[in-house]
């Protein structure tokens, strides 16, 4: 209800002693509150109403209103506590992640400093593949193919040069033939890299690869 109605006010309504505006407001509130509606209907059917009965019913109405307000307050404070708890939980997670990000790289850098320097020096020596003849082309481009060889060809010694020929079927190197190479191990490793590496386009061709 938008306001509290006592029993005497309801009795005035039933006797037609309220203004049209007040009667209309009471009827609207009765539609929204079943307790008020039942009280009005009960008074309408009762011819003789004494003050003791009025006082008892008024207490019931006031108790109903107070219970509704208490329920609203309880829901509000419960929702407020849940919101505060959620925000606190998110902040705790963020702080934990920041703490981890701040400390983990320092440990990793100090523990693997030597190996990281070695990797950086090795990657600087980039492999270079050149098309000698034919129509074969790496599907992702020559730069990407050279990067693939540089990163994955760590078993091939620096300064090695290999000339080879292969055909392309279903974008895969087929019938790989070594034309020139310094040793068998380098040839086998390069064939493996070609067969497990990027896709190709074209029909066939000869490559010269230098590490």
TrEMBL record:
Keywords: Membrane, Transmembrane, Transmembrane helix
Transmembrane segments: 82-101
Name the record gives this protein: Anti-sigma-K factor rskA
């Amino acid at each position: 209800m938008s306001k509290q109605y006592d029993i005497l006010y309801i009795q005035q309504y039933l006797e037609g002693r309220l203004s049209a505006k007040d009667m209309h407001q009471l009827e609207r509130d009765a539609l929204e509150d079943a307790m008020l509606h039942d009280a009005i209907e009960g008074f309408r059917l009762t011819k003789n109403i004494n003050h003791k009965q009025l006082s008892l019913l008024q207490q019931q109405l006031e108790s109903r209103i107070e219970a509704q307000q208490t329920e609203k307050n309880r829901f509000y404070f419960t929702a407020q506590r849940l919101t505060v708890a959620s925000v606190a939980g998110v902040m705790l997670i963020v702080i934990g992640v920041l703490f981890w990000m701040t400390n983990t790289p320092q440990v990793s850098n100090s523990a693997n400093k030597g190996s990281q320097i070695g990797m950086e020096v090795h990657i600087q020596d980039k492999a270079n593949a050149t098309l000698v003849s034919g129509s074969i082309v790496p599907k992702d481009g020559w730069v990407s193919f050279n990067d693939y060889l540089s990163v994955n060809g760590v078993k091939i010694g620096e300064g090695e040069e290999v000339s080879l020929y292969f055909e392309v079927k279903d974008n895969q190197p087929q019938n790989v033939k070594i034309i020139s190479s310094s040793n068998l191990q380098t040839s086998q490793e390069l064939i493996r890299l070609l067969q497990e590496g990027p896709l190709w386009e074209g029909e066939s061709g000869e490559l010269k690869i230098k590490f």
